[in-house]
Amino acid sequence: MDKICANCHFLGKQHSHQSHGEGVPFFIGSKERYELKKGNFSCISDMYSLRCLKEVWDERFNDNGIPLQDIVCQKNRENRCFFYPYDEGISFKAAEELQRRLQEHRQMKKSNKYTVIGLLIASMGLLINAGVELFRLLREGA
To answer: What stretches pass through the bilayer (predicted)?
Structure first.
């Protein structure tokens, strides 16, 4: 699965009401995601704007001229945001928690890798030291 916004659980739309100020965010469903990936943005009516529900980007504030198609369907988000694969049956809070756990797991794996490398270097140092000591003892005994 490509790590693009159209495949991310946190892709949403916001219906802005003047009386509500900020507006109410909604998830984008499977059918709408399918249409977006095909380039059909008409499935999102004019009263909604697309946005990342983790606030990485928002269509309303896209003043750098990047086409929405590129933002949602082409830009690789790997290691650049809070990407978590879309799963229709998972709530926003559950996806947030699972994404946090996944991030912690990645950090732990990275940390463990460096720990193993450190232990290997220390082990090699001990072996070299033991070899030097053994060589010194053999020379003195001879």
So the answer is: 114-132
